[in-house]
Design a protein that fits this description.
The complex is a heterodimer of chains A (about 450) and B (about 300).
Chain A (H helix, E strand, L loop, with lengths): L3 E3 L18 E6 L5 E6 L3 E7 L5 H5 L9 E8 L4 E3 L4 E3 L5 E4 L7 E6 L4 E14 L23 E17 L9 E4 L5 E5 L3 E6 L7 E5 L12 E6 L6 E6 L4 E5 L11 E3 L12 H5 L3 E4 L5 E5 L3 E6 L8 E4 L8 H6 L9 E3 L5 E5 L4 E6 L5 E5 L16 E2 L9 E2 L11 E4 L5 E6 L2 E6 L10
Parallel strand pairs in A: 28-29
Antiparallel strand pairs in A: 1-32, 2-3, 3-4, 4-5, 6-7, 8-9, 9-10, 10-11, 12-13, 13-14, 14-15, 16-17, 17-18, 18-19, 20-21, 21-22, 22-23, 24-25, 25-26, 26-27, 30-31, 31-32
Chain B lengths: L14 H5 L17 H19 L9 H20 L2 H11 L8 H8 L26 E4 L7 E4 L5 H4 L14 H22 L15 H7 L11 H6 L10 H8 L9 H4 L8 H23 L2
Antiparallel strand pairs in B: 1-2
Pfam families (chain A): WD40
Keywords (chain A): Repeat, WD repeat
GO molecular function, one term (chain A): protein phosphatase regulator activity
């Protein structure tokens, strides 16, 4: 893998390892073309990066140094503010839980961003021209004295510096009692779903005062609550299908044509428990933290605490592939339970051809698995061990056998450096990794375009 | 069990008994007698840990429901297993026998109620230095030996550092906002247990006869009470500005759900009778913490 481009955040050189809580990145998402990359953070801000246009073809032919597609800051805006629930006397965090882009329909870009309670639709548009030559107003916009006007002129559009405007277009509020963990735009381009711990709602992008509840797993008696919804996503092609995952490690595929309330699943994906590995932590580590449809819509990718699994939509009895992300943590579960790390929610992503899956781990490590060969590789997103444009070298966690130079012992892992959020470019081998308050963008120079294998 | 003065290293044998596992539903009550002491010790530690986690949902922001549900399920699982192998009854009898006058966490109370028996007189644990105990918690082992009588031994208090055997190189990762509350809460627990140790010398072992109680009754008698004011004057001074009612369960419940109750928390139910002043003082404490956050923000200059 190739170069590293880093987004500069607040300079804390005087406080070496101190990270401003508000700068911690909480979500990363490419748009459908990959030209735009949005990040949300705990302080409720959204930063959008834009890829620099590739140099023209003739420059490449002449062998000149091309500046190929780095991502630079395009726009920054405050999406959500801290709020207060007066009824419960509790704060509502402004942390951005998820961002999803809408498919582009005109010159403007639209994205949905959500915190725990409220989803907002933002319009991102460019302005690079402005009208000049008004009759009644002067250059600064002040009204002219009428007596000084002697002739009529037609205002002309003149180019100006590029200005990016971001405006809120819709606010979808009061739809959720519990914390929103997922949003997903439907392939119909008109609706989207939002999921909290116990309910899933479907909204129309144009209507903010109504939503349809499509899943409700809240028990009548809250004392009977044993399972919550952890993630949900629409099928990439079939607008009537969506999937949601639970804290008990199950996946449910629902068909909205079956009934208005999809409490009864169409398919239930569950792997039977391995009796040999049973412990008090079995349920906790089976909780699915993220679920993603493959681009071709035939597979599901899920992440639980120790593994990433690929499921075939046609086979409910178990995953077709299981990848060990950090099996060496299995003997440390009690400690990880004590320090709450066992509740960390890692995301997982597909590459554009669905041949590689990627997910995060601790110590700034992240893992990639090649589905063809089944082999996994460990990489590191850490500034001090990689320079820009340097080739990323693979890392290894030492778990026995011959110890190689550069291996990291399990006991030396830094559990405060977790890679939870990441995104893969929709068509190229470019990945964006969020490491606490830093964003790393890696590009594959050897194979920049994904080839179907 | 452990030679005097040896600090017990934490290992994670919770997984091990599972493989030898005949602690399933089919295990007869007599299996409790052969229960590996380290397994039941670990299980008890896990139960304590889980109860603490359930209580210490911090109150500025609504706690994570998924995490709460998973912890509650773990508690339920432990309780079921302990009921099946009879250990639960011992704990509840200890609770019934307990006449601890001061308010404290019942989990704490149960655990420190019984001190070590006359078997190894030299074994009474020495108080650990306060500094090292910031986020530690104690554990107790309940072992059934012999036909009728039960023998209870007290294991040394563990600090977090020794608990993790230093490998992770850091303390537990509570949320930032939790830090103050959690440290102090568990500090107070440490003090509770120390206090109990001296009181418990008079504990009546005869009360631990094999009585029969259903799991429901048992679970229902658990109460979470106020943490006791620490007897150590130095600590007292340290925590003089902490409002113990902040950790009151009413505040926990209010925060956790829009509905006042949340199961499986029969454990937590009986609190409602407890402190009438809880809510008002907790909300003022909350606003204090809000102010504190605000001040911190100004200092940090964000």
């Amino acid at each position: 893998m190739g170069e590293v481009a880093e987004s500069p955040k607040i300079n804390h050189t005087f406080l070496r390892d101190y990270v401003t809580e508000a700068d911690v990145i909480s979500t990363v998402e490419f748009n459908q073309t990959g030209d735009l990359l949005a990040t949300g953070d705990k302080g409720g801000r959204v930063v959008i990066f834009q890829r620099e246009s590739e140099s023209k073809g003739e420059l490449e032919e002449t062998g000149e140094n091309v500046d190929s597609g780095e991502y630079n800051v395009y726009s920054t805006f405050q999406s959500h503010e801290p709020d207060f629930d007066y009824l419960k006397s509790l704060e509502i965090e402004e942390k951005i839980n998820k961002i999803r882009w809408l498919p582009q329909q005109n010159a403007a870009h639209f994205l949905l961003s959500t915190n725990d309670k409220t989803i907002k639709l933002w319009k991102v548009s460019e302005r690079d021209k402005r009208p000049e030559g008004y009759n009644l107003k002067d250059e600064e916009g002040r009204l002219k004295d009428i007596s000084t006007i002697t002739s009529l002129q037609v205002p002309v559009l003149k180019p100006t510096d590029l200005m990016v405007e971001v405006r809120p277009r819709r606010v979808f509020a009061n739809g959720h009692t519990y914390h929103v963990n997922s949003i997903s735009v439907n392939s119909d381009g008109e609706t989207y779903l939002s999921a909290d711990d116990l309910r899933i709602n479907m909204w129309h992008l144009g209507i903010t005062d109504r939503s349809f509840n499509i899943v409700d797993i809240k028990p009548t008696n809250m004392e009977d609550l044993t399972e919550v919804i952890t993630a949900a996503e629409f099928h990439p092609h079939h607008c009537h299908l969506f999937v949601y995952s639970s804290s008990k490690g199950t996946l449910r595929l629902c068909d909205m044509r079956a009934s208005a309330l999809c409490d009864k699943h169409t398919k239930l994906f569950e792997e039977p428990e391995d009796p040999g590995n049973r412990s008090f932590f079995s349920e906790i580590i089976s909780s699915v933290s993220d679920v993603k449809f493959s681009h071709n819509g035939r597979y599901l990718l899920t992440r639980d605490y120790l593994t990433a699994k690929v499921w075939d939509l046609n086979m409910e009895k178990g995953p077709v592939e299981t990848y060990q992300v950090h099996e060496y943590l299995r003997s440390k579960l009690c400690s990880l339970y004590e320090n709450d790390c066992i509740f960390d929610k890692f995301e997982c992503v597909w590459n554009s051809s669905d041949s590689v899956i990627m997910t995060g781990a601790y110590n700034s490590f992240f893992r990639m698995f090649d589905r063809e060969t089944g082999r996994g590789v460990t990489l590191e997103a850490w500034r001090e061990s990689s320079k820009p444009r340097a080739v990323l070298r693979t890392r290894r966690v030492y778990t026995g056998g011959k110890r190689r130079r550069g291996d990291v012992g399990v006991d030396s892992l830094d559990f405060t450096k977790k890679i939870l959020h990441m995104a893969w470019h929709p068509s190229e081998n470019i990945i964006a990794i969020a490491a606490t308050n830093n964003l790393y963008i890696f590009q594959d120079r050897v194979n920049p375009d994904t080839q179907t294998q | 069990m452990f030679p005097k003065g040896t600090k017990r290293k934490f290992s994670d044998p919770v997984e091990e008994p599972a493989s030898s596992g005949d602690q399933g539903p089919a295990a007869p009550p007599a299996a409790a007698r052969t229960l590996s002491s380290s397994y039941s010790l670990q299980r008890q530690s896990l139960l304590d840990m889980s109860l603490i986690k359930l209580q210490l949902c911090h109150m500025l922001v609504e706690p994570n429901l998924c995490r709460s549900v998973l912890i509650a399920n773990t508690v339920r699982q432990i309780q079921e297993e302990m009921t099946q192998d009879g250990t639960w009854q011992i704990m509840t009898q200890a609770l019934a026998a307990a006449q601890c006058p001061a308010d404290r966490l019942v989990a704490t109370e149960v655990l420190c109620r019984q001190t070590e028996t006359g078997a190894q007189p030299g074994q009474s644990p020495k108080p650990f230095p306060v500094v090292g105990l910031e986020e530690g918690y104690h554990s107790e082992e309940v072992v059934m030996e012999g036909e009728v009588e039960t023998e209870v031994t007290m294991s040394p208090q563990l600090s977090t550092n020794s608990y993790l055997a230093g490998p992770f190189g850091m303390g537990p990762c509570w949320d930032e906002e939790d830090d103050d509350g959690d440290c102090e809460e568990e500090e107070e627990e440490e003090e509770d247990s120390e206090e109990c140790m001296s009181e418990g010398d008079d504990a009546d072992r005869d009360h631990l006869s094999a009585d029969s109680r259903t799991g429901d009754q048992v679970f229902g008698t658990f109460e979470i009470k106020h943490p006791a004011p620490p007897p150590d004057p130095a600590l007292e001074e340290l925590f003089s500005d902490v409002d113990p009612s902040y950790y009151d369960l009413d505040t926990v419940l209010t925060g956790m759900q829009s509905t006042p109750k949340m199961g499986p928390y029969d454990l937590l139910e009986s609190l409602s009778s407890h402190t009438p002043t809880a809510l008002s003082s907790s909300s003022s404490c909350r606003s204090d913490l809000n102010e504190l956050d605000h001040i911190m923000e100004i200092i940090v200059g964000s």
